[in-house]
Amino acid sequence: MPGQERGRAGVSNAPADAAKRPRRVAACSCGQLTATVDGEPVRISVCHCLACQRRSGSVFAAQARFARADVTFSGEGREFVRVGDEGGGATFTFCPACGVTVHYTSIGQPQWVAIPVGVFADPAFPAPGVSVYEERMHGWVRMPDAIEHIF
Ligand SMILES: [Zn+2]
Ligand SMILES: [Zn+2]
Asked: Alpha-carbon distance 136 to 60, whole Å?
């Protein structure tokens, strides 16, 4: 019996592998601007910096990074370029109708697309592994114990 179970699992390997690359859709509030991603993000981070607080409207921002090749864009977006304190920056694409930022790209890193975790509206989305700029973290916020802290 256990052997048979393994056998069946072996037969279903192809669909199981496909299931390991879940498809998720990030969408703005009105739904016209979307980013569809295949597979798990390569990195999920939280940033407490003031620019990310202002951009997200929340007390910290959570974002997932995907390879651009795994992302399909749909809808009309407008762009805002934010230049960071240390010269870096990012181009944010937001819905002109409802204002939600659905994805962004860091300047000089066109191979990656970052998507704010909240726009997936999925409480089962994987947890962040990195926490950045904790010196700006609101006093009541608690990060998971296992998270990696970067200044
Ligand atoms: Zn919208
Ligand atoms: Zn930030």
From this structure: 9
Q: Which residue has the tokens 């959570």?
A: 62
- Ligand 1 centre from 27 Cα, in Å? 8
Nearest ligand to the CA atom of 88:
2
CB 17 within 8 A of CB 10: no
The fold for domain 21-138 equals 2.170.150
Q: Note the ligand closest to the C-alpha atom of 59.
A: 2
Ligand number with the minimum distance to the CA of 89: 2
> What is the 140 CA–ligand 1 centroid distance (Å)?
31
| CA 114 to centroid of ligand 2, rounded, Å | 12
pLDDT recorded at residue 18:
57
Dihedral sign computed on CA atoms, order 37, 39, 54, 52: negative
**Percent of the chain's residues with pLDDT above 90:** 80
Quick: pLDDT tens for 71-117: 999 999 999 999 876 667 999 999 999 999 999 999 999 999 999 99
Tell me the domain boundaries of the chain.
21-138
The average pLDDT across 3-22 equals 53
